[in-house]
Amino acid sequence: MAELINFFETTGFFNITYGYAIMIVIGLVFIYLGIAKHYEPLLLVPIGFGILIGNIPGVGLQGQGVYDKGSVLYYLYLGVSKGYYPPLIFLGIGAMTDFSTLIANPKLILIGAAAQAGIFITFIGSLLLGFNVMEAASIGIIGGADGPTSIYISSKLAPHLLGAIAIAAYSYMALVPVIQPPIMKLLTTKKERQIHMKTPRLVTKQEKIIFPIVGLIVTCFIAPGGIALLAMLFFGNLLKECGVTERLADTARNSLMNIVTILLGVTVGASTDAGKFLNWSSVKIFILGAFSFCIATAFGIIFTKVMNLFLKEKINPLIGNAGVSAVPDSARVSQIEGQKYNKRNFLLMHAMAPNVAGVIGSAVAAGVMLGILGN
What we know:
By secondary structure, the protein is mainly α.
């Protein structure tokens, strides 16, 4: 009987608390949204399942959680806590990304830069809510809607907030199709939504090869602190465009990207132990994350409207939302919304320019913050 009692005390049924139950429900919601609603399933399904793993009661007591040194999950989680996974994700993104539209119409990079205002406004808001400067910098990156960058900078500056920041960043990335359309409609007129954009010029192979090399030099001269992310992004793109390393590019955008996405998603989810995750700091991070995402979207649209005051060939402001770096979902939202008002409009190719500019911009912003605060 004593052995049976001891066994029962090690089970999840004995150690369950309200906190664990809440987190398990949240994990199930993530899985549901990924499978049933197709909201970033490649992210939400692994993260949701990871949340279940991290909130099985009693796991921590037996030394098997991500925070228990020596456990399998602990070593897999090192890729998150030490910042190994995000640069590998950026390598895969670079190998998948076509910068042609950005090269063909360089002024669109300004839209991606404008959307990064969400990062710095949220940084100030975080300070006002009582977070210290390191925490505020990490939370602010959520405004770029860039999960890997959020993880990378928080692992360096505020590792104790990593789980909440990562979940907030990926949650809002997944909810792009829900959050952005109302803001786009609110800030634009029907006439603006109907603006037709011409097909961009064809970009030469030489330009595509030169771009990642020049991009690396320019961005890393501006923000050396972001070199791990920026170098992998541009290197992956060079592998794709140079024409002689297709095997490496294929590995980066397929096998490697899939493996790292699985490991990152599951371990980030598993880091949301109820005892560490359910607190007022996490609530404030989620509120700030939603605020920053809305601000970034709004600034991208408003800046596009301002640009139109000085341009003969107008830009459809519906691509302004793509300045956040949720690739390619925010560009896809531009396309869907644009088609509702003008069937001749194909905004996806145009929206990809500020979209990839947003990826670069958020990495540069992270590099600037690391350069200032990381020393």
